Amino acid sequence: MNPNATSPHALAALVRRVVAADTAAIYTAPRTMLTQPALLSGLTRRGWFAARVDRAPVFNKETVLHAFYQAGCFPAYFGFNWDALADVLADLSWLHAQERPAEGCVFILAHSQVLAQRAPDVHTVLVDLIRDVAATRRAAGLPPLVLLLDQAAATPQSE
User: Fold this and answer.
1) What is the pTM assigned to this prediction?
2) With contact defined as beta carbons under 8 Å apart, do 149 and 142 qualify?
3) Of 52, 83, 86, 128, which alpha carbon lies 20 to 30 A from 121's?
């Protein structure tokens, strides 16, 4: 483990990397960085909606969907399936309803290796879904969508 991974400079660099997101939707970082409150506050100060998804264990499809629902404060009509997650992430109007217009939206899975180990297919579907929705948002000129994952669960196309 890199002792400098949670330094203020390292956290600030990660915030800058996420905020400058132009093409990538998936980023990885050491878990020690992803669990720092300063990461969330740094992103929020930059005008982003930032939420830690895995405050409770996330290990299958049901727990992933429920964790996103809670972390994002999704609307009550959220359907708890992949299509519903894609729809809510594609249209961030629910953020405006909460009086939180955002420059971008980032969800953090600090313990994503648990999902990758216990339900690799679910992990793959989630990563692909985020990439697809982020690309659609980018093509429409909408604020970026980013998923931050633990480096231990990195996918081949993660940056």
Assistant:
1) 0.90
2) no
3) 52
- Locate 155 and state its tokens: 């996918």
Kindly state the tokens that stand for 58.
């996330």
Please give the Cα distance from 124 to 126 (Å, whole number): 5
Q: pLDDT (tens digit, 9 = 90+) per residue, 65-123? A: 999 999 999 999 999 999 999 999 999 888 876 666 789 999 999 999 999 999 999 99
Alpha carbon distances (Å) from 96 to 49, 87, 103: 11, 15, 12
Please name the residue that has the structure tokens 């879904």.
Answer: 129
2 within a domain of the structure (yes/no): no
**Residue 3 belongs to some domain of the structure:** no
Domain of residue 142: give its range: 8-153
What is the side-by-side order of every strand in the sheet holding 105-109? 26-29, 145-150, 105-109, 49-52
